[in-house]
Amino acid sequence: MENVTEQTNESSLAKGIMGALLGAALGVGAMFGFYTLAGFRFPLLGVGIGILTGFGGKLLFKGGDSKLAVICSAIALTAVAVTLYLMYHEIPILSIISIVVSASLAYRIASN
Question: How many CB atoms lie within 10 A of CB 2?
Answer without folding.
Answer: 6
